[in-house]
Structures are given as structure tokens and as C-alpha cells.
Write a structure and sequence with these properties.
Length: about 290
């Protein structure tokens, strides 16, 4: 897969963390007093996914790590089955003078995947709180879940270690207070990779993308998300082979049902000093 850098006229420019927020004057009220101040505001821009010249979806997202986003989204949505089915990926600004005008991600995929995409093409607009936007029927809304390799639950110490490291590894959240994080943690709970976005689904897709690009061994760790464990989060994690999902907030009933179907370890309400195990994968006894 060839990934071309973001094109912002000439020369090419890379979107940095600093481009993902802006400064704005605000009036702060605290304990009965007001004062003028500067605040850091997270950027949220339209990102269009275009496959073989056909626009598929526009998502509202943070403008960083879009290569990972494109790969992770393509995999978790079943548009491709493996990274090699993407031939080329270009990021192009709609307006070289304004990042807010949006970015097109132009993705070249195999003919087979392109034909399949056209057959089930959905015209949808994504929002930061939406996971099923654009499904044309109830039958399309709930997709079958992919079974994962059953893994042992991470040790409670590992879960607590990951939680303790999360805030220190979220620079955009620290600066703006408006971004979700999705992290890959090793079996000891140390955060090895993390991606951020204004949308929780987008953050997870970005993580899934970088995990694939770096050929990460998914049996050697777990994913941690700074949000609730929704249906979509469980579905995306299992579709890409993640065996354990840990969420800072609660799961939904459908998320729990899908985790049970997939054989995915699901842990919620992961906070300092506590967490709740909602589903534990059944691991067959090894033959002697």
C-alpha cells in the first residue's frame, strides 16, 4: 500500500498535533468571578472517504493520523479484508488555505472489493456520537460479528496500570478536554500505541489502522478506550481480531451480546481502583 503525504498545495505538509486545535478567547466564570482567557479548542473537520473515485462517506474527525484512520475504517467496516487490498492512499485538502474545509482521502482498492462496495454502498454522514449513520434498513444496521481468538483476561494489575497511564498519553485530550483516546496495551498494561480523535469510533479506527501497519501481535495485549463500549466499538474491535476490549465507561446491552457471540473479553467501568468484567472468553483446555 502506497501512502502519499497530505497535499496542501505545494509543497506537501503533514498535519501535526498542533494543527488539531486552535486558540479562542473565552470568558471564564469561577466562584462568582469572571475573567477573560484563552482556551484550546479541538478542531473537527469533514473527512471524505473516496474509494476508486466514488465518495462513500463523510466523517467528522480530528485531522491527525488520517492514514491510520483510512486503513482502520476500511478494515473495520469490511470494505477490505486485509491491508494489501489497498493499492494507494492520497490525502488531499479541499482548500489549501483552510484545514476546516476538509480533507479527501482518496483510496484505490482492488477491483473485487470495489465491486462489492458498490453492491452494498451506503450514502451516510458520520457524526462524533453516531455509529450506525446511513444504514438503509434494520437488516443492515446490525451486522454479524466476527469471532476472535479466545484470550485469557488481562490481569487486574495490567488493567489498572493501563488506566493509570491513559491521561498522560493523551496530549490532545490534555490540551482541549474534547478528545477520545484508543490505546493498545501490552499484557503488563503498558500503553504501546495510542490514537486520539473527537469521535470515539474514529479513535478506535485510527488505532486499528496503526496496529495493522505495524503488524502488531494482537494476542499480546488488549485495547483500551476512553469511552463507553458501544455496539460499534465491540464490532470494530472483533472485526480486526482484538480479543480484549477495556472501556472507561459502561457497555450497552447489544455490545455485551456481541462480545459474547464473538468470544471477546469485555471490561467496563475501568477506573482507578475498580473495573467490571462483563464477559470472559471461554478457552478450551489444551490437549496433553
Amino acid at each position: 500500500m502506497a501512502i502519499n503525504k497530505l497535499k496542501q498545495g505545494d509543497p506537501e505538509t503533514r498535519v501535526t498535533v498542533e494543527s488539531c486545535y486552535k486558540q479562542s478567547t473565552v470568558i471564564r466564570w469561577q466562584q462568582g468571578k469572571t475573567l477573560d482567557a484563552l482556551d484550546s479548542i479541538a478542531e473537527e473537520i469533514p473527512v471524505a472517504m473516496i474509494y476508486n473515485g466514488i465518495s462513500h462517506v463523510v466523517m467528522m474527525a480530528s485531522p491527525c493520523d488520517l492514514e491510520d484512520f483510512a486503513l482502520g475504517f476500511s478494515l473495520s467496516e469490511g470494505i477490505i479484508r486485509k491491508p494489501e487490498e489497498i493499492y494507494e492512499l492520497d490525502l488531499v485538502m479541499a482548500d489549501p488555505e483552510s484545514l476546516a474545509a476538509g480533507i479527501e482521502i482518496r483510496i484505490s482498492i482492488t477491483t473485487q472489493r470495489s465491486v462489492q462496495l458498490k453492491q452494498r454502498r451506503r450514502n451516510l454522514t458520520g457524526r462524533t456520537g453516531c455509529g450506525l449513520c446511513g444504514a438503509e434498513s434494520l437488516q443492515q444496521a446490525i451486522r454479524p460479528v466476527k469471532p476472535v481468538q479466545p484470550l485469557p483476561l488481562p490481569h487486574s494489575t495490567a488493567v489498572q496500570t493501563a488506566i493509570s497511564q491513559l491521561s498522560d498519553n493523551q496530549p490532545l485530550q490534555t490540551i482541549t478536554g474534547a478528545c477520545h483516546g484508543a490505546a493498545w496495551c501490552d499484557n503488563a498494561g503498558n500503553i504501546r500505541l495510542i490514537r486520539e480523535d473527537v469521535g470515539r469510533h474514529n479513535a478506535l479506527d485510527k488505532l486499528l489502522g496503526v496496529l495493522q501497519r505495524e503488524n502488531t501481535d494482537l494476542s499480546d495485549g488488549f485495547a483500551l478506550v476512553s469511552s463507553r463500549a458501544s455496539y460499534e466499538m465491540v464490532h470494530k474491535a472483533s472485526s480486526c481480531g482484538i480479543g480484549t476490549l477495556v472501556a472507561v465507561s459502561a457497555p450497552t446491552g447489544l455490545a455485551l451480546e456481541l462480545a459474547q457471540q464473538a468470544g471477546l473479553n469485555l471490561i467496563g467501568f475501568a477506573r482507578t481502583g475498580r473495573h467490571v468484567i462483563y464477559n470472559q472468553a471461554e478457552i478450551a483446555d489444551s490437549e496433553e
